[in-house]
Amino acid sequence: MLENKVALVTGAGRGIGREIALTLARDGAFVVVNYNGSKDRAEEVVKTIEAAGGKAVSYQCSVADFAACQEMIQNIIKEYGHLDILVNNAGITKDNLIMKMKEEDFDAVISTNLKGTFNTIKHSARQMLKQRSGKIINISSVSGILGNAGQANYAASKAGVIGLTKTMARELASRGITVNAVAPGFVDTEMTAVLGEEIKEAACRQIPLGKFGQTKDIAEMVAFLVSEKADYITGQVISVDGGMSM
Ligand code: NDP
Q: Which has the least CB within 10 A, 11, 62, 76, 185?
C-alpha cells in the first residue's frame, strides 16, 4: 500500500513512534527512524523492520533544532528523491502545577512539541508542494483538547499542534497534501509509566472504555490516515482515547 513512499517518523526509537515506524514499514514504506538520544533503540527499530523484510534507516536530529531539521530533511530528499509522509510524533512532558512550573520547563515543552512540529513541516512543505502530494500527521493529545491540571506547558503545546494542523491543511490542500492530527488519550509507554498507580486509576475512571490504549491503537490510525483510503480527509483531529474526550 505504501510501496515507494518515503516516510519520516520523529521520535521513532521507542513508544508510539516506534510502533508507527514498524506499522508504516509493514505497509511498504521506506521509513526514516528519527531519534534524539535513543541511538541504540532507533537502530533496534531499523533491524526489526529489516528482519520483517522492510526498509529503514535511523537518523539523529533534535526536532527542536530548526537548522538540524532542515539538514535532515534536505538529506532525506537528496538521498531518497522524495518525502511522502511526515509523522510528527516526538514529544516530551515536564509536568507541574502553574505555581511550580519553571520558565525553562514551559519553553522546553513548547520547543519540542510545537516548534518541533513547525520545524519539520516548514522544511518538508516545499518538497511536498513540488511533488503535489504528501501526508502529514501530527500527534496531539487529549490534553490539548480538554486541558489537564499539571500540564499547562504540554496542553498548550498540543492545542497549538491542532491550530498548526488546521492551518497547514488549509495552506497545502490545493496541492493535494493532507494534514491531520491524531489525539491519543492515555497510552501505555514510558511517558505514562512514570505516573503513580493512583493517578492511573483516576485516569481510567475518566475513560469510557476503562483502560489505557496501546501503541498499536495509535499506529493503526496513522497508517490509515497516510493511506489512499484517507485521501479526502484533511484538517481533522482524530481522537484515539477510549472515548475520553467525547
Ligand atoms: P515516549 O516518552 O515513550 O517517547 C518520546 C519520544 O519522543 C522518544 O522517541 C524521544 O526520542 C522523542 N523525542 C523527545 N524529544 C525529542 C527531540 N527533541 N527530537 C527528536 N525526538 C525527540 O512518549 P510516547 O511514545 O508516549 O509519546 C509519543 C507522542 O505521543 C508524543 O508526542 C506524546 O506527547 C504523544 N502522546 C502520548 C500519550 C501517552 O499517553 N503516552 C498521550 C497523548 C499523546 P529519544 O528517546 O531519542 O530522545
A: 62
